[in-house]
Amino acid sequence: MKKLLLFFLFVSFLFAQNRILIDENYDDWNDVPNLHEDPSGDNSSGTFDFKTMWVTNDDDYLYIRIQTTQKITLVDNNYMTIFIDTDNNSGTGKSVNGIGAELQYTFGTRSGKAFLSVETNIEYDDIGFVGAPTFSGNDFEFVIRRDSRISGADLFQSSTIKIVMAGYTSSSLTDYYDKTPDTGGFEYTFQSGQVDPPPTYSIGKTNAGYLRIMAYNVKQDGIINTDKTTEFSHIFRSIEPEIIGIVESYDASSQQVADRIEFFLPSGEGQNWYNKKEVSDIVLVSRFQIKQSFPIDSDVGHDASGAFLLDLRPKFDSDMLVIVAHPKCCSGDLNDEKRQNQFDAIMGFIRDAVNVGGSLTISPNIPIVIMGDMNLVGDVRQYQTLITGNIYYNGTYGEDFAPDWDGGNLDDAIPYVTNTGMTFTTNPGGYPPGRLDFVVYSGSVMEIVNSYIFDSGNLTNDQLSQFGLDAADTKVSDHLPVVVDFDLSPITGFKKKDESPKEFRLMQNYPNPFNPSTSIQFTIPVETQHAVSLRIFDILGKEIKTLLNKPMQPGEYEIEFNAEDLPSGVYYYRLIIGDFTQTKKMVLLR
Ligand SMILES: [Ca+2]
Ligand SMILES: [Ca+2]
Ligand SMILES: [Ca+2]
Ligand SMILES: [Ca+2]
């Protein structure tokens, strides 16, 4: 008995694993031991060639990652098909490659067949399929629900299964480019054991000093439809956003939308819902004054984005540039072309705003946020334009540029759906849930402290009752709200740079000697339990000023010290983090 217990402990210890996150990042697969390497270049025709397949599971899902040499979109325009022998019996199901498959599912048509007691046509949602990325690539991760039931039978019938994938040339699923494995099936046995919980988040605000942003496609003016008051009111009252970027507000004016939000979230003393509409369906509603707004034109006759300059005072001593975008939907070369123009136009607008001249010039280090339903279901190049400022049609939209103030890329918030490890932002429809709605931001001057994609269907009963929600509320639109809380203290004090420095370090201030202000840089390699404290002393050791005193994330930081009201002389600045102390000298020369 004792031996048996020890054995089980050992097994569960073996399977202690990172949760697989369906999020366009593959670090979570690094320690997955169950993989199959398909030979490179063994494709019999065409350019489609399988590389590595990984397989793992938790209690809810079978997780598979697959690499291909050819760039494809996972859920469209391909005949890549998976076969699973779910009872580990080659004598039952459809015979393929020597296995007897109970499941046949083609990714690009989002449909397939089950061969259980009867043959049944299935769609993606019959097997709980969710995958990433939604735009094109050659490395994909996806899930199949283990509790799927088809025509009254469990899809998975054995703890050991066999898997084959084939890249077919057409919908007849006869000729193929490549298979993996080439003979037989890849055998996988479901494991049990501890898996990390999903990423944490907080529906409510954790600190009133943060800024809460919400991006929401409200589906064809849904927000002004009085039949949908209950659902939208539940959603807005739970989230309590401060800046809301709405798309698909075609018929409604921005004031009509703001009136609805006022009904959901009444303004208090000194509060207002400022609002502005741009192009055909873009509405910004904000607790902060909208100083200026602009349509962002593209050359393709479908203006899809609006830019809004907000004054965040008095809450934050700064302006903020917000772009709400809704580029052309859907797959196909023509739509891809339109979207590329629209992303080029957005990035061209930002380039002109951060440089002097043109219709708008913003001050350095103003936070920039781009949010909305980006419809990124085609070429990954559009996403790269959005993040890196690499404009494709330079002739029309001008030079490439570095979109963040530190000369780097913008950051993609990538929140997870409440209580899951997945990043989809759409409800199931003609296509599986996908990531279409984004919040992208200038990470050098603002930091995410909390974020989530709000799916009431994935909340616990306790959460539903705490926030007065119904599980079906977020079905009111085909898109889910994306919520991000930002800490804007970087813009009022310090600036975060390198993500992963190696040591605690206090750098020499620059310039030195200085008059009247100088910049002090320091690095923190690990998350600190103690407050990070940066203090200024005079030559007699008397403390003059505390520049900083709070716990901080790892990073390289830069903080400005202004000595306007101090006399010339020698001063010291000291960084204190728990047991770590470092002091340096500086000279104020007037
Ligand atoms: Ca992942
Ligand atoms: Ca291959
Ligand atoms: Ca079988
Ligand atoms: Ca092969």
Describe this structure in words.
- The chain is mainly beta.
- It is built from eight helices and 36 strands.
- Strands 4, 7, 8, 9, 14, 15 and 16 form a seven-stranded antiparallel β-sheet that branches. Strands 19-20-18-17-28-27 form a six-stranded mixed β-sheet, with helices on one face.
- Helix 4 (333-354) packs parallel to helix 5 (380-388).
- It is globular, with a radius of gyration of 27 Å.
- The model is unreliable at 1-13 (pLDDT under 50).
Poorly predicted sequence stretches spanning 5 or more consecutive residues: 1-13
What is the β-strand count?
36
| Distinct ligands, ions and cofactors found in the model | calcium ion
Distance between the termini: 81 Å
Main structural class: mainly beta
Strand content: 35-45%
Q: Main β-sheet, in a few words?
A: 7 strands, antiparallel
- Give the helix tally: 8
- Cα-atom Rg, whole angstroms? 27 Å
In round numbers, the mean pLDDT is: 93
Kindly state the percentage of residues in helix: 10-25%
Q: What coarse outline follows from CA principal-axis ratios?
A: globular
Q: What is the gist of this entry?
A:
The protein contains 8 helices and 36 strands. With 590 residues, the chain is mainly beta.
Question: What are the key terms here?
Answer:
binds calcium ion; 6-stranded mixed β-sheet; 35% strand; mainly beta; 590 residues
List the helices and strands and how they pair.
Layout (H helix, E strand, L loop, with lengths): L1 H13 L20 E3 L12 E8 L3 E12 L7 E6 L8 E3 L2 E3 L1 E4 L4 E5 L3 E5 L6 E3 L4 E9 L3 E2 L2 E2 L5 E9 L7 E5 L5 E4 L21 E7 L11 H11 L3 E5 L6 H11 L9 E5 L3 E5 L2 E8 L8 E7 L7 E7 L7 H22 L13 E6 L6 H9 L5 H4 L13 E2 L24 E5 L5 E7 L7 H7 L14 E6 L1 H4 L1 E3 L8 E2 L10 E8 L7 E7 L4 E8 L4 E8 L6 E9 L2 E9 L2
Parallel strand pairs: 17-18, 23-24
Antiparallel strand pairs: 1-2, 2-3, 3-11, 4-7, 4-14, 5-6, 7-8, 8-9, 10-11, 12-13, 14-15, 14-16, 17-28, 18-20, 19-20, 21-22, 22-23, 24-26, 25-26, 27-28, 29-34, 30-31, 31-34, 32-33, 32-35, 35-36
Bound molecules: calcium ion (CA) (4 copies).
